Amino acid sequence: MQKALATAFSLIIFHSLSTRKVSSVDTLKPGEKLNSSATLLSASQTFTLGFFSPQNSSKSYLGISYTNENESFPVWIANRDSPIYDDSGILTIDNSSKLMIMHNGADDAIELYAAERGTNIAATLLDTGNFIVTEMNSTAGKVLWQSFDHPTDTLLPGMKLGINHKTGRNWTLTSWFSLRDPASGAFTLEWDPIRRRLLVRRRGVIYWTSGDLKLYQGYDTSEFYQFDYIDPHLRYGFINVTTEDEECFAFPLLPSDHVSIPELPWNPPPWRLNYQGNIYAGGRQNVAQVDLCYGYNTKGSEIYLGCELWPQPECRNSLQNFSLRHGHFELNTARIFHDNSSTLSQSDCRANCWNDCQCAAFVDDEFGCLYWRGNNATFIEDSAPTGRELYALISNQYPPPPSPSPLAPPPHPPSSFRNKHKRRKWIIVSVTIVAVFLLMLGSSFFLGLKYKQGTPVHCTKLLFKDFSIDPISRHS
Ligand SMILES: *[C@@H]1O[C@H](CO)[C@@H](O)[C@H](O)[C@H]1NC(C)=O
Ligand SMILES: *[C@@H]1O[C@H](CO)[C@@H](O)[C@H](O)[C@H]1NC(C)=O
Ligand SMILES: *[C@@H]1O[C@H](CO)[C@@H](O)[C@H](O)[C@H]1NC(C)=O
Ligand SMILES: *[C@@H]1O[C@H](CO)[C@@H](O)[C@H](O)[C@H]1NC(C)=O
Ligand SMILES: *[C@@H]1O[C@H](CO)[C@@H](O)[C@H](O)[C@H]1NC(C)=O
Ligand SMILES: *[C@@H]1O[C@H](CO)[C@@H](O)[C@H](O)[C@H]1NC(C)=O
Ligand SMILES: *[C@@H]1O[C@H](CO)[C@@H](O)[C@H](O)[C@H]1NC(C)=O
Ligand SMILES: *[C@@H]1O[C@H](CO)[C@@H](O)[C@H](O)[C@H]1NC(C)=O
Ligand SMILES: *[C@@H]1O[C@H](CO)[C@@H](O)[C@H](O)[C@H]1NC(C)=O
Ligand SMILES: *[C@@H]1O[C@H](CO)[C@@H](O)[C@H](O)[C@H]1NC(C)=O
């Protein structure tokens, strides 16, 4: 249901952007203006940059999306927290060397990058989805600013997550506020350089981890990095890099020069952290199902793979969760409370209801949260889907998942994922030949990433040193 909604929504959100091929240039030059009916197209037309409006919204945003995919959320948004309230947005490089979005209205122009006065800059949309500002006169094409350094909710191949210890700067994904509102939301995805793992936090609390990045033995003698709690069949070539200043994580673009099988998706699909904390790979398979996490550490259970522990009220237990159901409460057993604070996202409503022992159901709306409270609130599910749809607290009757001793090692991915992916067996079989090839090819690349200890270089240089595709420089 929600997936269908998400799909329907995404079909519409970018419909106008991808069908508007007004320009076929990839570069904005000083003095040029890109208004809401024009776009930039990357050199091979993979990505489009332009203004878009979510469905039924008059707000507009500057974003980048895949050009030819129907099911596509924007992979980057320039002004997620400063929407333009009409379609007056114009992207331009003004005469004082600033890349900015001008628009009608009381607010000032939105400045994306300000170069030193007199610098001749241009902004280019690359085929990697990176939007870069370069100095036009410099022969080296030095990158002064790039959208990859300002991630929104999507990790494209070639982007990194991580931290620069010297500058304190970090690269993290932040979810949308809701299904339709791209404003910064409750969930973040970050790289934990100490444990070498990925973390999803909700308002700072760790909800999910990927498990540690580990070297696994391939089908032959090859070795490759995987996480304990991420399906290895997604076939990402994860890499982690440590330099003197930076520690980071990425999955690279694969070098197309070495590939001649046309059907194979050589560029792995991007990851999107959605407003419920789930991570989707290309809108299809889940990388992480974070909305199943309620703070019970159920290691060993396939459903709750990666869920973390956090303090729970005594009235709750690990058999309970909220489930979207049509229904109502028995007369006089529950009272409705409206908290119309617009800063509350769906996950805030859920957390508040969970922590309130009288709360038996919630729904989120555009104004905040509705809660159904009562000591003896009795939910009655409709036999036909006629009543209101709400997230009702359900006490599941299934036996509790096994709780292995805390010292037990986490399950090895290939076995723990076996049952979950039984139905996809045919896919696995069909890709095995290809996967072996990929692993052989991949491991030689990933393990071949040698670096000199202590050299003050940045992650991205190392990540893509050995790859034929550089996400930052324009190809010569
Ligand atoms: C955008 O600019 C083009 C060409 O200058 C113009 O024809 C078009 O009407 C403009 N669109 C908007 C929405 O202002
Ligand atoms: C958009 O508005 C139309 C007409 O008011 C309505 O039927 C539709 O449900 C709305 N869509 C969303 C996603 O709110
Ligand atoms: C996109 O939509 C068009 C028409 O709605 C359809 O013909 C095409 O196959 C779709 N493409 C993808 C990749 O789904
Ligand atoms: C720069 O642009 C501003 C506003 O667009 C204008 O007032 C100013 O005269 C311009 N300066 C130069 C040197 O062109
Ligand atoms: C950059 O190049 C432009 C035209 O090629 C020239 O007019 C300008 O003076 C140059 N600027 C610098 C700082 O070299
Ligand atoms: C990343 O930076 C933001 C602000 O720049 C900060 O709030 C956040 O705590 C940082 N995260 C980490 C993991 O350092
Ligand atoms: C990546 O992490 C592993 C540990 O999981 C570590 O042994 C390896 O040195 C790291 N690679 C780089 C390039 O830092
Ligand atoms: C609630 O828990 C049950 C039992 O594990 C599970 O099947 C169901 O998918 C969960 N529902 C939600 C919405 O989390
Ligand atoms: C929210 O609730 C407060 C107090 O109940 C009320 O004054 C305010 O008008 C409400 N705002 C909206 C948008 O409903
Ligand atoms: C709770 O509600 C049920 C059904 O409405 C009722 O049978 C029961 O007596 C109630 N219990 C208390 C303690 O009120």
Output the radius of gyration: 24 Å
DSSP strand (E) fraction? 25-35%
User: What ligands can be seen in this structure?
Assistant: 2-acetamido-2-deoxy-beta-D-glucopyranose
- Largest β-sheet summary: 6 strands, antiparallel
Alpha carbon gap, first and last residue:
47 Å
Tally of DSSP helical segments? 6
Low-confidence stretches: 1-16, 18-22, 255-265, 404-457, 465-470
Apparent shape = globular
Lateral strand order in the biggest sheet:
28-30-29-32-27-31
Q: What is the number of strand segments?
A: 32
**Helix fraction?**
10-25%
How many structural domains? Answer: 3
Give a description of the structure.
The protein is mainly β and 476 residues long. The protein has helices at 2-13, 15-19, 346-355, 413-416, 425-446, 459-463, and strands at 27-28, 33-34, 39-41, 47-52, 61-66, 76-77, 90-93, 98-102, 110-114, 121-125, 131-135, 143-146, 154-155, 161-164, 170-171, 173-176, 184-192, 197-202, 205-209, 213-217, 223-227, 239-242, 246-250, 271-273, 279-281, 285-288, 320-329, 335-339, 359-365, 368-373, 379-381, 389-395. The chain contains six helices and 32 strands. Strands 28-30-29-32-27-31 form a six-stranded antiparallel sheet, covered by helices on one side. A four-stranded antiparallel sheet has the order 1-10-11-12, with no helix packed on it. It is globular, with a radius of gyration of 24 Å. The structure holds 2-acetamido-2-deoxy-beta-D-glucopyranose (NAG) (10 copies). One 2-acetamido-2-deoxy-beta-D-glucopyranose is lined by residues 340, 367.
